[in-house]
Amino acid sequence: MTTIDWDAAAGSFDEEPDHGLLDPVVRDAWAGRLESWLPTVRGDVLDLGCGTGSLSLLAAGQGHRVTAVDRSPRMAELARTKLAGTGAEVLVGDAARPPVGEQAFDVVVARHVVWLLPDPAAALERWFRLLKPGGRLVLVEGVWGGVGLPAPTLTRLLSAHTERIHHEDLAADARLWGRKVDDERYALVARATPPYRHTEVVDVHLILRRGPDVLLARRAGTGYADGLLHMPSGHAEDGEDVREAMIREAAEEIGLELDPDELGVALVMQHRGPGGGARMGWFFVAEYDPARPPRNTEPEKCSELDWFPLAALPDDMVAYCRAGLDGYRAGEHFMIHWHRDGEPIAYDPGGTRRAVPLRAAGDPTGRVHHIELWVPDLATAERGWGWLLSRLGHTPYQCWEHGRSWRRGDAYVVLEQSPDLVADDHDRRRPGVNHLAFHVADQAALDALTAEAPAYGWRLRYPDRHPFAGGADHCAAYLEDPAGYEVELVAASRQRS
User: Fold this and answer.
1) What confidence score (pLDDT) does residue 160 get?
2) Do the domain assignments include residue 196?
3) Residue 493 needs a FRET pair 20 to 30 A away by CA distance; which of 72, 199, 323, 420 works?
4) Total count of domains within the chain
C-alpha cells in the first residue's frame, strides 16, 4: 500500500479530524503553509497520495497547475469532483511510481505518504528525478501513537540527494489539526539543487480613497483568509514593475483603468503571515473618480466590495492590511509586520501589535517634534480634538491622568489639562500661538470634515466666505472649539464646482 485512504485509515492517526479541510480555520492554516512552500510564481505541482484532493484544491486556488495521484479509484473520483473547473488532472496510480511519464514538476507534495511506502528510499529517488532544476519536495509526516516516520529518519533519507532540507514543526500550530496535539508532526522541504539567493514575493495594494472612506473587498473562495476584508491587491509578475502590477490588478479586480499619474506611493511594508514566507508589499493610493466607479469583477474571489471609513476601520480585516492602512493614516512610509507561526491571520484588536515603523535616514534638525496645547477641560478637548486628529490621520499615542496625545509620522500633538494652569480661558489674540493649520487632501475632504465638525463641538468661522475666507486662491476651513482654540484646514488644491 503506497497511498492513504483517509476514510479507512483515519483511526490510525489518533482519529485525526478534518482530513478534507472542511473547517475554514483548518483550511486557512494549511493554505498559509502551502503558500509558503510553493513557488511564488505559477508552477507545476504534483500531489501524491492526494486522497479527496484537499491540498490539490488549495494549490490550484493559489494559481498553480496541479496533477494529483492516488492509488484508490474511489479517492481519485472524489478528487476529480472536488477539483472540477480548476484545470487539475487527477490520475489513478502508485505514489511510489507516479504515472506521469517524462513530465517534470516544480514541486512534489506528499502528505502522510512516505511512512506507508515499502521502500521510501527508492520512492524519494524517483521523486527527485521528477523535479525541474530548482524544484523541491514538500513532505508532511509525523508520528502518531507510536507509528509513523520520525523527522531524523526522513532527513537522513533526503540527505542522500540534497543538503538543503528545511524543517518546520507543525505540532505547535493547533489550527492545522483542529485541536492541540502533543505528538510529532512536521514538514520537510528539500531542494534538489544548490542554494539560491533569498527571494521574496512582491505584492501591490490599492488604497482607493473616496473622501474619508477607503474601498475594501471581502475575500471568498480563495482558500486563504476567506471572509476577511482586504484592499484590492495582487502580486507583481515577471517583467512588471510595481506600478504596472498595480494598474493591472486594479483592472482585473475592480474594473478600474488607472493612469500611472493617478498612483502615489503610500508606504512600503515587508510582511509575513503566520506560517508563510516573507513578502515585500507596495501600498499605492489613488482618488475615487465618480465617472469611473469600481465594481466587483471577480465575484468568485470577492463576496463584498464596499466603502469603509478610514478613521474607523472594521476589525474583520487581514492583519497586515489593517496595519498598512493604520500606518498610512499615521504618515508612515516604511514598515515591518511580522507574524509568528500559529497566530491568527485576522486583525486582533486586543492582540500584540506586529507593525514596526522604520524611520527614513536623514537629519531631523528643524522638523517639528511635538506641539503641546494646555486646555481647561481635557474631556471636552479630547472629544473634539480626538475626532479631528483621527480624521486627519493621527493615531492615539500616549494617555496619562492629565493628558492625551495623537501621533502622525514622527511628530505628535499633546492636549494636557495641567495642574499648573494659571487661567481657565484661552484667547488666541494674546501673545502666543494663534492657531494650528493642517493639510487636507482636497476640497471634497475639506467639505466632509466641515460637515462633521459641529457634532464634535467645532464652530465654523467666517461661514459667509467659506471656503475662501483666506483669499480666492486659498481653499480652507477655519474651525474653533468650545475653549476658543482655532484650527485651519487647508485643501491641497482649489476645487470649485
Assistant:
1) 86
2) no
3) 323
4) 3
